[in-house]
């Protein structure tokens, strides 16, 4: 993913020009949403505090949250170094450390009874080593993973086998009525193995 760079507070440029307009629109939308939420919080607080007292107590927080500051955090967390921040990965460890350090920096105290900032939860990791072959008549064709095919399963089983299954090609496996696209139309898939293309169909971005 290309890194974002700031040219002015309302504009974000990307190394790939095709994403510039989308990035700019999303960035502005995020800022508007953040501003709206902050305004709602201030409105709620105003009902409990006088205007002068409210201003004095909220001013440090208002000054601390800036577009430049938010973008700086986004640049770090979205950088290639964090590798997508997937659970159980190096990127997750880096993300947890970065966020924890930011909590400490602003004086936020740990919320867990054991005095830590993170909560341990059980996770199950799955690493697939799929094998596939086609049998046509008396000929067998072995496929190489991931060069010829990609397959995975979310079932917590040591091994999953699908034998002697009819194969049905379903394009990209997409149903999108808004584009008049249905890869499953008039296709009988019951009890069969579906073969589909990786990625998205070539539909123009509206």
What does this structure look like?
The protein is of the alpha+beta class and 206 residues long. Among the domains are: 4-78, no CATH class; 132-195, no CATH class. It is 33% helix and 14% strand. It has helices at residues 20-46, 51-64, 67-77, 90-105; strands at residues 4-8, 11-14, 132-136, 139-143, 167-169, 175-176, 181-182, 193-195. The strands form four sheets. The chain has a two-stranded antiparallel ribbon with strand order 1-2. Strands 3-4 form a two-stranded antiparallel sheet. The chain is elongated, with a radius of gyration of 25 Å. It starts with a strand and ends in an 11-residue tail after the last strand.
Q: Which keywords apply here?
A:
alpha+beta, two-stranded antiparallel ribbon, 206 residues, two-stranded antiparallel sheet, elongated
Short summary of the structure?
The protein has four helices and eight strands, in the order ββααααββββββ. It has helices at 20-46, 51-64, 67-77, 90-105, and strands at 4-8, 11-14, 132-136, 139-143, 167-169, 175-176, 181-182, 193-195.
